[in-house]
Amino acid sequence: MRWEARAQGPLLALAVAFGVAYAVPIVAPDAQHWVHQLCTVVEWAVWGAFAVDYVVRLVLAPYTWLFVRKHPLDLLAVLLPLVQPLRLLRVVATLLLVGRRARMAPQITLTTYVAGAVVGLMMFGSLAVLHVERNAPDGNIRTLGDAVWWSFTTMTTVGYGDHAPTTGLGRVLAVGLMLSGIALLGVVTANIAAWFISRFDRDDAEERRQTALLEALTTEVRELRAEVARLSATPPSDPEAPQVAGVPAQAPRACRSDQAGSGSGPPRSG
């Protein structure tokens, strides 16, 4: 659709702005009050832009209910921040909408999408768990470095245990990050396996093509040898026809015509 093609770039740029607005209050909690207020306004503005995009696509769809049934995550992402105005819900909603938009972009390949998803999940997971666990009484994730390290070990399903969330919301984030990491690792593994398979298929196709060419050349050489052997076995023809013994050769037509004109008997007397 034209609307989806035109809105693709601006919405992805707004998603980047949302990431910055979400990260600033967590990384710099001592910033001035107007900075926090501005970041909150940017977050809601970005969510509103994605909500308007969903409504426009819903109106332009030829079958409304079919569109709703085919895009349940989009509807959930639009309605989720309205249930309870938590920043974490806005993060989840925006991630769902950005992921949907990224998958729809034809210029984004699977590898680029997976790499962007890994970086995005790690960044937002680190910021979210730092925001939740920083002020927890028994929390051990106090800095951004600890949060990034925890996100990396959680997404790769390693889990050293040196850093772990202690609050209920932090553990919910950990479960989501684990499941997302497993899914992304599965996609990466499948993508690598598909690349190797396609490479082997191309090599096999090239080998089969060369084998077919060699067989065709062998058949042609065999036919040429058979033709040469047939021509060598045939005796050469004599250009002069041989004369049969005891049969005189016929005189030329000119001599026969002269003899017929002069006559064979003596001349008669008058």
Written overview of the protein:
The chain is an all-alpha fold and 270 residues long. It has 9 helices and no strands. It has helices at 2-27, 33-60, 64-70, 72-83, 87-104, 110-133, 144-155, 168-233, 253-262. Helix 1 (2-27) packs parallel to helix 6. The longest helix has 66 residues, at 168-233. The chain is elongated, with a radius of gyration of 45 Å. Mean pLDDT is 75; it is low at 254-264.
Features:
about 270 residues, Volt_channel_dom_sf, 9 helices, single chain, Potassium channel family protein, elongated, mainly alpha
SSE topology sketch:
Elements: H1 2-27, H2 33-60, H3 64-70, H4 72-83, H5 87-104, H6 110-133, H7 144-155, H8 168-233, H9 253-262
Describe what is shown at a glance.
With 270 residues, the chain is mainly α. The chain is built from 9 helices and no strands. The protein is elongated and about 110 Å long.
